[in-house]
Structure formats: structure tokens, C-alpha cells
Design goal:
Distance between the termini: 39 Å
CATH architecture of one domain: Beta Barrel
CATH superfamily of one domain: Aminomethyltransferase beta-barrel domains
Order of helices and strands: EHEEHEEHEEEHEEHEEEHEHHEEEEEE
Largest sheet: 6 strands, mixed
Radius of gyration: 21 Å
Number of helices: 8
CATH class of one domain: Mainly Beta
Strand content: 25-35%
Helix content: 10-25%
Strand order of the largest sheet: 11-12-13-10-4-14
Shape: globular
Structural class: alpha+beta
């Protein structure tokens, strides 16, 4: 099916989502399922049982060659040398001003091959950035259009997927992966990663095998009442965990240190604009990304003003929602450092009213 007047890209299972009755919306240059039933029902399905996201809009770049390690090490903030075969790492690309080009996952496939998984809306920008740093003995390939990605998330994810593979999924530690057979299809990357905090796996599948794998997952999950999950629930799930969303919480003009990503920013190595981050750390931050919970009843939204007790603006909200798991308004935003300590009283301007909130330590949701 088509959405009139658009030239949006489609994932391989586009027609399947229409057939399932999903509400399809433009997102990051793709037409994507935002929900199949309700955001609340889908959120709770993932927290309490198991659901499947089709996140095939994400981008996958492959870096091969004798200098692959040095190449990725120079482009990303985390220490790639710490990776071993089968290990995944969360990281960032920084631009020449130390802003975040994108946040990404780095997979070590072998000593001379890495997979970089980037955000859908940044595929073209990221690819141009990576290519602009090409060196000898490094081969780059963008296979984003050839791969599908399914996130099977929730406490029952292992039980469902175990029916489809002889690999002992319980042995796959968090942020590691194996490559093997699942649902009768060989060479699937089975990664113990996700964006929900609910546990589970992400499966990288060739487009031609996507429908077979999708159908077999749902067949295997009937007893657990498995459901397809849209981007609406994906957003509330990630926000409850305090995970950043590119374009909201991080962007080209925010640095990893400002975004609370110092833990993936290794300043004992050289990478693009690392010297600027060393300087920023020495001089001190002028703003920090924090999590907050509403004390008074209200739902914070992106771009709302954050105020102090004197009604002076001290920052702005980057992400906000009514937390389905906690039953209260939660959000993240950039504020002046002096207000960033957990327990600090702040106010969110909602419909011209300053409603009380407090800074909290992330994640909001603790299983």
C-alpha cells in the first residue's frame, strides 16, 4: 500500500504491517508502524511479556581491512580496542566541534571487520562522514538497504526465540552476540541488545529471509501472546530507561559530556575533536542533560521550558511523557549544572503554569 504524496522508503515487511492494521507514519525518511493497538498496551506487553519491533530502518555499515580497528577508533568516542570478537559497544561519532554526529553500536565481527549500526534518520549523513575519513587498507560498505532488523524484547523473549534455535540463548551475555541459525535461516546475527530495558535480542536478517523469520517468531510466541510493537511504545520504553534519542536529547551541537555520555567517551585516546572534549572537561560544563520526575501532575513535552523557583529559565525539556510503568510524568532536559544534582527542585512550564518537578538519577524505571 502507498501513502499518497510521499517518496518515503519502505522496510521489507511494509505490506505486513499494513495487513496487521498498523497506523503507519513518516519517520526518519521511512514509512513506519507507530502502533498496532495502543501505545499503553504495547508498552506493557514488552515490560511484562514479549513483543517484536521491526526496526529495519536502522543503518548498517561494515568496515573491513588491516586498519579497521584504527579507523573505527579514530571516528568513535569509546575504546574500540577493548572489544573482542562477539562483543558490542555503545559509542558516538563526534564532529569537528565535538558535537554528536550520531550515537551508534559497534560490533566486532572479527579482528579486521566491524559493523556500525546507526540511526535511520542519519544514514546518509553518517555514511558521508565515515567515507570522508577513508584511509588505505580499509573497505567500507553500506548494507542498510539489504538488512532487516527485528527487536524481540521482553522477559519472555528468550523462551520464544529458544524454540527456533539450538544456540543456548541464555549464554549470550548482555551486549554480546553470536552468528548462527535461527528459524531455519543461517548466519543471523543474534545480539543481546535492545532499546527497552526489558531484555531480549535484536536479530539482523537478510531482507529475503525477513518474512520467514518474522512469521516463525510469531508462530513460536503464540503461547506467550506475542505482539507486534510500534514506535510509540518504543519511545516510552526507552525514555523510562533514560536512553537518549538522537534529534531530541543529542544532536550535532551537544557534546557527549553534556549529554551524560562521559562513560562512553574515553579521553585517554585520540579521536575526532577529543582535544575539545578534554578542554570542556577541564573548564567545566555549562549545561547538563538530566532526568526529572513531575511532583505536580503534568506531562512534560519536548521544548518546554525548565524554570527555577524564581521563575527564571534554566533549561529546556528534550524528551517527556507520562510513564506507563510509573504512572507519572517523566522527562529529560538540559539545565544549568548547579541544578543538576539528584533531588534538586525544578519547575516545568506546562500551559503557562510552572509545575514542580525534581531531578532524579536515571533510569526512571528499575525492574
Amino acid at each position: 500500500m502507498e501513502i499518497a504524496g510521499t517518496d518515503l522508503k519502505k522496510v521489507a515487511l511494509n505490506d505486513v504491517h499494513f495487513a496487521l492494521g498498523a497506523k503507519m507514519v513518516p519517520f526518519a525518511g521511512f514509512i513506519m508502524p507507530v502502533r498496532y493497538s495502543s501505545d499503553l498496551e504495547e508498552h506493557n506487553t514488552v515490560r511484562n511479556a514479549v513483543g517484536v519491533f521491526d526496526v529495519s530502518h536502522m543503518g548498517e555499515f561494515f568496515v573491513k581491512g588491516a586498519h579497521a580497528l584504527d579507523f573505527v577508533q579514530n571516528l568513535t568516542t569509546n575504546d574500540v580496542s577493548k572489544l573482542y570478537n562477539g562483543k558490542v559497544q555503545y559509542s558516538c561519532f563526534t564532529n569537528n566541534n565535538a558535537g554528536i554526529v550520531d550515537d551508534l553500536l559497534v560490533y566486532k565481527l572479527s579482528d579486521e571487520e566491524y559493523m556500525l549500526v546507526v540511526n535511520a534518520g542519519n544514514i546518509e549523513k553518517d555514511w558521508n562522514w565515515v567515507v570522508s575519513h577513508t584511509v588505505e587498507d580499509v573497505e567500507l560498505s553500506n548494507l542498510s538497504h539489504k538488512l532487516s532488523l527485528f527487536a524481540v524484547q521482553g522477559p519472555k523473549a528468550v523462551a520464544v526465540l529458544q524454540k527456533l534455535t539450538s544456540i543456548n540463548l541464555s549464554d549470550i551475555e548482555y551486549y554480546t552476540f553470536v552468528k548462527g541459525e535461527l528459524a531455519g535461516i543461517k548466519d543471523i546475527i543474534i545480539s543481546a541488545t535492545g532499546y527497552t530495558g526489558a531484555g531480549g535480542f535484536e536479530l539482523y536478517v537478510k531482507n529475503e529471509d525477513a518474512l520467514t523469520v518474522w512469521n516463525k517468531i510469531f508462530e513460536a510466541g503464540k503461547e506467550e501472546d506475542i505482539k507486534p510493537i510500534g514506535l510509540g511504545a518504543r519511545d516510552t520504553l526507552r525514555l523510562e530507561m533514560g536512553y537518549c534519542l538522537y534529534g531530541n536529547d543529542i544532536d550535532d551541537i551537544t557534546t557527549p559530556l553534556e549529554a551524560g555520555l562521559g562513560w562512553i567517551t574515553k579521553l585517554n585516546k585520540k579521536f575526532v575533536a577529543s582535544d575539545l572534549l578534554v578542554k570542556q572537561k577541564e573548564e567545566g560544563l555549562k549545561r547538563k542533560l538530566v532526568g526529572f520526575e513531575m511532583v505536580e501532575r503534568g506531562i512534560p513535552r519536548s521544548h518546554y521550558e525548565i524554570l527555577n523557583s524564581e521563575n527564571k529559565q534554566i533549561g529546556f525539556v528534550t524528551s517527556g511523557t507520562q510513564s506507563p510503568s510509573l504512572g507519572l510524568g517523566i522527562g529529560m532536559g538540559y539545565i544549568s549544572p548547579e541544578y543538576s544534582k539528584a533531588g534538586s527542585e525544578i519547575y516545568i512550564k506546562i500551559r503557562e503554569k510552572a509545575l514542580k518537578a525534581k531531578v532524579v538519577t536515571l533510569p526512571f524505571y528499575k525492574a
